[in-house]
Amino acid sequence: MKLLKNKEEALSTVSIDVAHGDDVTLIGAEMMELMIRAKGCGLAANQVGITRRIIALNVPNFTGVIINPVITNKTETMKMSSEGCLSVPNKQVKVKRNYKVTVEGFGLDWTPLKINMKQLSAYCVQHEIDHLNGITI
Q1: Quick one: DSSP state of residue 38?
Q2: pLDDT of 33-51, one tens digit each?
Q3: Which one of 9, 76, 83, 128 is the catalytic residue?
């Protein structure tokens, strides 16, 4: 598994849902390993050339993989987040993000997940879902 950088096509491609029940365990495990090795807090599947809706996170209140993540609730409070990106090395960008979000999706075993996140965790999950929508900093 290789991390895509800068202007590679998969980074600007809108990812499609994973079919319910599909086994993406190996993809998720490899994404987690790559993200941790690269010292990131998040990684989207299209950053490794897989245009499916899968993200890996290593944030204060959640470490793991979310399949088909969707933000189902967010506060109106916005904060500026200074963000880097594993696919855009040596670049920091200030982005306005929701301070708190609720994300829902599925774990690697297709167990439903519902996670409330704030601050860094919320900013990171929003950043990764942006990737799934073809948006890079």
Answers
A1: T
A2: 999 999 999 999 999 999 9
A3: 128
Residues 10-29 have pLDDT tens digits of 999 999 999 999 999 999 99
Active-site residue, 128 included: yes
- Measured CA to CA, the distance from residue 126 to residue 25 in angstroms comes to 23
DSSP string, 64-131: EEEEEEEEEEE-S-EEEEEEEETTEEEEEEEEEEESEEEEEEE-TT--EEEEEEEHHHHHHHHHHHHH
Question: Which residues touch 23 (CB under 8 Å, ≥6 apart)?
Answer: none
Q: For residue 58, give every residue at least 6 positions away whose Cβ sits within 8 Å of its Cβ, in sequence order, or none.
A: 32, 35, 36, 40, 41, 42
Residue type for 82, please?
A: S
Length of the chain in terms of residues written: 137
